[in-house]
Amino acid sequence: MIRFNGWPAHARPNAPESFGLPRSFTPVAPLRKFEPVASPRLTQQPANDPATLSSPEPSEVRPVEVPPAAQADKVALRNALDELEAARARVERDAQRVKDETRASLIRELLPVLDNLDRTLRAASDAESGLVEGVRMIRSQLEEVLVSYGVERIRALGERFDPSLHEAIATTPAPPSQAGHVTTEVEAGYRFAGKVLRAAKVVVGALDSRG
After folding, report:
1. Taking each helix axis from N to C terminus, what angle separates 129-148 and 68-123, rounded to the nearest 10 degrees?
2. Residue 159 and residue 82: Cα distance in Å, rounded?
3. Please, which residues bridge with residue 9 across strands?
4. Which of 18, 110, 124, 130 is the most exposed place for a label (fewest CB within 10 A)?
5. Is 14 a member of any domain?
6. How many domains does the chain have?
7. Last residue within a domain, chosen from 100, 118, 149
8. Is residue 100 part of a domain?
């Protein structure tokens, strides 16, 4: 038996027949280990590479042109809203005016009642103190109601005569310091909502031409 290095020829470890192959088997060259090749397109760049951090140049932004028809509609809408707001304000003013006129009409009807109470108080005697006190309370309550609705009494006594607030029914001789001033208030005047409901009837001091 032929031996190779102490091994029978048919039992040599590297012999083809030891693996059940014919003697004529020629082994191929051993395969080389696969080493991947980096692709230029897949090569990663460092995270802090300025090339990766720089953003592309923004394209030029062009303003959007509004069609003339749309611009006209926008102007028309704005005008319509302005007209609507003006109409709303006008309706509110008219409603307030009607309310003030209605109240003023009612207040004018109550003023003579207040005048009569004042006359009763001036004409009452001391013997009628109980009646006087009752009338004074009624007058005070009525005046409080009128004030709560915005009625304001016009100042007259001692004030300089103002034809827009006072109605002169007479004049009386007076020293120079009182000339042109109200010396007596005959009937009280009132105003409401910035308007004179009734001018105060007064006596005005005048210089005595004889003196």
Report:
1. 170
2. 47
3. none
4. 130
5. no
6. 2
7. 149
8. yes
